[in-house]
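fyi for ur records
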Amino acid sequence: MSQAQTSYEEILQKSWAELPEAKMLPDGSYRLRCTGAKVMPPKQADHSAQCLFVYEPQEPMDDVNADALAALGADYDFSENVIYARFWLSKASDWDKVRKHLAKHGINPTDFDSVDASLKAVKNTELIGYVVARTFADKSGAVQQENVVQTFIELN
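which gave:
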């Protein structure tokens, strides 16, 4: 339910039963649009910094099961499923992974004066990602599900 479709005031007047529940995307390839990327410092001294990319799925590719897509509903908005890709930054090889990931977006990091500038340039670029649902236990022990990208491919 995007803000363009419904104002916050209208949402606040709805009952909980009227609000959609989160749905997992079926496994498969999706065209993903990057809404932003940034480097985040470590939360504690013994932790690593991380580079975070944020994606909104735009459309499924042919390898996504048609029946699973139909189960989402005819008017399902794929961009509701925000997907995060994290790169932990503790070694030089980790920065190399970020550099190669930027290249999949069509960004040549050396064309920019800073890491920050190259990360800002990735906004609104697209690529293909193979998305799967992952189940995990959060810090409280509650079982959660999220969509994650296993593989990224340049969009050509």
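The longest strand covers residues 28-40. thats all i got for now
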